[in-house]
Design a protein that fits this description.
elongated, Jelly Rolls, about 0% helix, eight-stranded antiparallel β-sheet, 2 domains, about 45% strand
């Protein structure tokens, strides 16, 4: 049995439990900015980030592996650190078969900067060329394992199948995120994920395969770490009488990006 999956010893008394999905939660496992927000308002259990903490929370992945920590102060509102993507807004260097500076041609295409009006006066056009389908560019990005990140960007599907933004463990892969759109207008897309390694890859794909000249557009790509959660969640503190914003225990097999999770909250004093 997973030792961390066991309920805490008495005198701890369970006071709440529930389930949630990755899509509706904001969970950070990184030391220094650990927090929990499952999408439901649990702020009633929040206290302070220092002193003697009244509640402990255990979170379980779908296989029963768990993490636990003491409940600290309520979240101060979703906040972000700096952008981790290079050249995801100006697209400098894009010309012909040469992708924008800082990006690699994952699948060869034709790339250009176009004015598509309004807030998209500097947008990237990713086009099928030379008889090669599915033109795509990629970039490797250094991140912090266990930290929660938000990917955001504007896409415009123009031709054929759809337009895609992928985040994965290698170029072209979609292990963490696979965002698609085929609406035909500019749409802002976003998604959250927690990397379990220090290098991930973002891929921008124009999913076209019929004829040369088909394309999609990209703009305003950003990837930022979350430094705090919404006021529906709370900070996690590593010790009952401490003030360090870490999880107390993290099982080595805990799935950072599982489909389903559950939690239990215990009163500890």
């Amino acid at each position: 049995m997973n030792i961390l999956a066991r309920a805490p010893s008495p005198p701890y008394v369970q006071v709440a439990e529930g389930t949630f999905t990755q899509a509706n939660s904001r969970l950070s496992l990184v030391d220094g900015t650990a927090f929990f927000d499952c999408g439901a308002d649990l702020s009633a259990y929040a206290g302070l980030d220092s002193g003697s903490h009244e509640y402990l929370i255990k979170v379980y992945d779908d296989d029963g592996n768990s993490i636990q920590g003491y409940v600290g102060a309520v979240g101060g509102g979703e906040a972000f650190g700096g952008d981790q993507i290079t050249n995801g807004q100006d697209w400098t260097g894009a010309s012909g078969v040469t992708p924008p500076t800082g990006w690699d041609a994952h699948i060869q295409g034709a790339y250009s900067i176009i004015d598509d009006g309004g807030s998209h006066a500097v947008a990237l056009k990713c086009e099928r060329a030379g008889g090669v389908s599915y033109p795509a560019i990629s970039q490797d990005i250094s991140l912090t394992s266990g930290r929660l990140y938000k990917l955001s960007g504007d896409v415009k599907f123009v031709d054929d199948n759809d337009v895609q933004i992928r985040i994965g463990v290698s170029t072209g892969n979609k292990d963490y995120l696979n965002i698609k759109d085929s609406s035909g207008v500019w749409v802002e897309k976003s998604g959250y994920f927690i990397p379990d390694r220090s290098i991930v890859y973002i891929t921008l794909l124009a999913n076209v395969d019929d004829s040369d000249g088909q394309y999609s557009l990209f703009d305003n790509m950003g990837l930022k770490p979350l430094t705090d959660c919404a006021a529906t969640g709370f900070h996690i503190i590593s010790a009952q009488g401490g003030s360090t914003q870490n999880w107390q225990n993290v099982h080595g097999s805990f799935n950072y990006n599982d489909a389903a999770y559950s939690y239990k909250i215990y009163k500890v004093r």
